[in-house]
Design goal:
heterodimer, A: 3 helices, elongated, B: mainly alpha, Cytochrome C Oxidase, Chain A, Cytochrome Bc1 Complex, Chain D, domain 2, two-stranded antiparallel ribbon, 30 helices, 4 strands, globular
Chain lengths: 64, 722
């Protein structure tokens, strides 16, 4: 539905800059993040992903 | 390090659990009721056909259903999971018990206020943001209480790293606050009436920026947080890929907020950017499908448990439903599919895959699992839970499949032409009666789903009765040692960020605000860019009152006011809608579903008597119609006591009513009402039945005046069109 009104946005002076900014921002953030995520040390990752399973609380009822 | 002893607050979790079950039953029951109205339009006319009950009409019950399911059922379900998992993940009791209680009771008070005001017709008409301004303020206050409580708990935690679930909770907290405030900016004109500060096109853009993101940040991100905690917990194995969850989180919050409306701008882009944009759209699948894959693969090597454990069954269907809905979403944004899907039942089917499968089943799984933990006893009946699972799954299929069929059938019928260029189904009603059997099947699907959920209620009540009544649970953990705020040797950047919670929250806020700004700035600029049409004038006082009755009765739930520039729509409804025609529409009333025909050009199409008879009994003018009767409009006196303050409010928003016009508004209203009555008296049938009553004082007159005005302005001066 909104596609029938978007031509109203096109008339705004310099509006093209918004999607370009957002695309570039996203690209930069996304790519940088992927690189960093894959450089994360394995040991720490394993430790953190155990957090929800960390059951030092044996008073909790456990049906398994 | 010395360990500290403390207690987890289980009482608050139980309170939210009971609220989830109660509102789940209520929300689904109202849903079933409105589904039945499609098949039996006279179902709720208890007091006889001529005495229809206003607060039981479809237009008022439908917002009650959507609000009850979204904010009451899923809302309480989210809080239930957040209050349980946050305490355990951070190894701390909630920040403050009083705040927890205020959050709980405040949220329930909001729900009760909504359940009373919506059937009374007190609504802003904006979908999923219908609540009027005093309740909006309550929502904001309670949200702040929740925020202080959550952030406070994070700050006093005994676990250095905040787990991915908590990130999603933080993102939900911040984004909902931003969205809710922006979309609900309104000008109060009386205790329970306000006008949106935006009008027409701008209002529509802001509303759907909100609508798209409310789905993202109320029905998706918090539930993903729950998924990241409860799925590993129940399967007793860590999440499939923690790396994927980092990518999942940041792309989701960074992308989602501007994803939908972002596409609005694409056509204005240079080619290289358009190409990049296509890649960008494809990448949108990353956050959602990455999350789905992460959830499902957590169960790798544990599929035998899925056969045994009803909780995991619920989770598997829920995550699959998430995958389906998030695949369908981008598909629906394709131009050609959108042309078919929009305004039809396809959309209703699509959102119910999200609500029934993803949200409903996720919550059900969590409730079953928590019942054992909270009452320290096995579930009353595993068999009953399995029965719920199968009834629910069948319910989802019986709900969604007929609506997909109905959607396609209706869309194709709307567009079918005879060789001579006329519409095959020129009468809109033919396209409604054709899909009634599908509506009946949908109601059966809803019944199955609700029955399953009632079994859950019984199961949990029985479990609670058999279980322990201990409210607080003892736990122990060492307090946090002070360590350097800087990254320490061997620590990854994100691992470091996970212990710097304030910085984390700030980064999250920046991520969503960038998206928000890129989106909002063009929306604010758009107002001055709507081509003005000289012949478009503000509504007369009587039409304004009529428009408010249209809003009160929720007509926009079934009738759109937006004719798309398709040959089939121009042929059926008349000239397609222009942006400049909506400049005085506070709020916009485009609607999102055509259960009935579009009404943007209904003005002048029928005479006043037709409208009068149609409102009194839609079946008398349109045999087979499923529209409710609006007999109270003929009995109720028009209440124009706020007329001047309404007009003054609109002047502040930019509507050019002169002070003289406002001071003589009542006379203007009376004169126009008299004219409508005179028109009605042209019909001898009318004189015979209603001749003795003073119809010019009744609400129906205002509504007729508004409907007769709709879409007529541009006819007055065609040359003014751009």
């Amino acid at each position: 539905m909104l596609k029938f009104i978007k031509h109203n946005l096109e008339g705004i002076d310099g509006v093209e800059i918004y999607p370009i900014i957002s695309l570039l921002l996203f690209f930069i953030v996304f790519v940088t993040m992927i690189v960093f995520v894959f450089k994360l040390p394995k040991g720490r990752i394993d430790e953190i992903s155990q957090l929800p399973l960390d059951n030092d609380n044996n008073k909790e009822f456990n049906h398994e | 390090m010395e360990k500290e002893q403390f207690y987890y607050d289980n009482k608050i979790v139980k309170m939210f659990l009971w609220a989830t079950i109660l509102w789940g039953v209520v929300g689904m029951l109202v849903g079933l009721l409105v589904a039945l109205l499609f098949v039996f339009p006279g179902l709720l006319e208890f007091a006889g056909a001529d005495n229809a009950i206003s607060w039981l009409s479809f237009g008022r019950l439908r917002p009650l259903h959507t609000n009850a399911v979204i904010f009451a059922f899923v809302g309480n379900g989210i809080f239930l999971g957040i209050y349980y998992s946050t305490q355990r993940l951070l190894k701390a009791r909630m920040f403050n018990d009083v705040l927890s209680r205020i959050h709980f009771w405040g949220w329930q008070a909001i729900i009760v206020a909504a359940a009373v005001t919506l059937p009374l017709g007190l609504t802003s008409s904006k979908e999923y943001a219908e609540l009027e301004w005093p309740i909006d303020i309550m929502v904001v206050l309670i949200w702040v209480v929740f925020g202080i409580n959550l952030i406070g708990t994070i700050l006093k935690r005994r676990q250095r790293h905040i787990y991915v679930a908590i990130w999603f909770y933080i993102a939900t907290l911040i984004t909902i606050a931003v969205l809710y405030i922006f979309n609900n900016l309104e000008m109060p004109v009386s205790a329970f009436k306000s006008y949106s500060v935006y009008s027409g096109v701008q209002d529509a853009l802001v509303q759907w920026w909100y609508g798209h993101n409310a789905v993202a940040f109320f029905l998706t991100t918090p539930v993903l947080g729950l998924m990241y905690y409860f799925v590993p917990k129940v399967a007793n194995r860590p999440v499939y890929s923690y790396r994927l969850s980092i990518i999942h989180f940041w792309t989701l919050i960074f992308l989602y907020i501007w994803a939908g409306p972002h596409h609005l701008l694409y056509t204005a882009l240079p080619e290289w950017a358009q190409n990049l944009g296509t890649v960008f759209s494809i990448m949108l699948i990353f956050p959602s499908w990455g999350g789905m894959i992460n959830g499902l693969l957590t169960l790798r090597g544990a599929w035998d448990k899925v056969r045994e454990n009803p909780v995991l069954k619920f989770f598997v269907v829920a995550i699959t439903g998430y995958g389906m809905a998030t695949f369908e979403g981008p598909m629906l944004s394709f131009k050609n599919l959108n042309a078919i899907g929009h305004y039809t039942d396809w959309i209703v089917g699509h959102v119910h895959i999200g609500a029934l499968a993803w949200n409903g089943f996720m919550v059900a799984g969590i409730v079953y699992w928590l019942a054992e933990k909270l009452w320290k006893t096995p579930l009353y009946s595993k068999k009953l839970a399995n029965t719920h699972f199968w009834l629910g799954t069948m319910g989802i299929l019986f709900y969604a499949i007929p609506l997909y069929i109905a959607g396609f059938t209706q869309a194709l019928m709307w567009k079918e032409f005879n060789p001579d260029g006329t519409l095959v189904y020129g009468n809109f009603l033919e396209t409604v009666t054709e899909v009634i059997p599908m509506y009946a099947m949908r109601a059966i699907g809803g019944t199955l789903y609700l029955t399953g959920f009632v079994l859950l209620a019984i199961n949990i009540i029985k479990t609670a009765k058999a279980g322990s009544t201990v409210e607080d649970e003892l736990a122990e953990a060492a307090p946090l040692k002070k360590i350097s705020g800087k990254r320490i040797a061997g620590e990854g950047w994100h691992t470091w960020l996970e212990r710097r919670t304030v910085l984390f929250t700030i980064l999250t806020t920046i991520a969503i605000l960038i998206g928000g700004l890129v989106e909002i700035v063009p929306l604010i600029l758009v107002k001055s860019n709507i081509p003005t049409i000289e012949s478009v004038k503000p509504y007369t006082p009587l039409e304004l009152e009529g428009r408010d009755i249209y809003i009160r009765e929720g007509c926009n739930n079934c009738h759109s006011q937006m004719i798309r520039p398709f040959r089939s729509e121009v042929e059926r409804y008349g000239e397609y809608s222009k942006a400049g025609e909506y400049v005085y529409d506070f709020p916009f009333l485009w609607g999102s579903r055509r259960t009935g025909p579009d009404v943007h050009r209904v003005g002048g199409k029928y005479n006043d008597n037709w409208h009068f008879n149609h409102m009194m009994d839609p079946r008398s003018t349109s045999p087979g119609s499923i529209m409710p009767r609006y007999s109270w409009l003929i009995k109720n006196d028009m209440n124009a006591s706020n007329l001047e303050s309404k007009m003054e409010g609109l002047v502040k928003l930019g509507v050019p009513y002169s002070p003289e016009r406002i001071s003589s508004a009542k006379q203007e209203l009376l004169a126009q009402a008299k004219q409508v009555e005179e028109n009605l008296r042209q019909d001898p049938e009318f004189v015979k039945n209603y001749g003795s009553s003073n119809i010019q004082n009744k609400e129906i007159v205002a509504l007729i005046a508004y409907l007769q005005r709709l879409g007529t302005d541009i006819k007055a001066n065609k040359t003014a069109l751009k």
